[in-house]
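dumping this here before i forget
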Amino acid sequence: MKFTSNDTRLRYCEMSLTMQSEQRGGRPNCVLVVDDHDDTRQMSLIVLSSQGFDAQAAAGGDEAFDRACELNPDVIVTDLAMPDGDGWDLIQKLASDARTKQIPVVMLTACATEAVRSRAEREGLAAFFFKPCPPDVLAAELRRLCSPP
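structure:
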């Protein structure tokens, strides 16, 4: 039987879903997406869900911190610009709280400057991407971060 590219992608997604579910005791890896733009947030949820993640969302830093405490996600993906503070405020708040300091944080931002990238390294972010980031690249990094060491 010859597989078309769509069949192959479907099989890969099914295998990926099975592997991820096994890693969390039958549940997919949880990713909290933080972005103040509704369209970007919704698109991220669709893309990550289609990649087998349990994608959850928050529109700003305060909501993101509350959701992180509630969900204990495997990874948080945050934008830099937000209506209530910024991504740096959120990162510092997460890092200083015992309930959230172990959660890897990935920054996904349109603020494409070397100063932002340098600060991301200093803050100890798990990964950093400029928008637009290809969905498969982001998903691969999230899978890597969710994998047991």
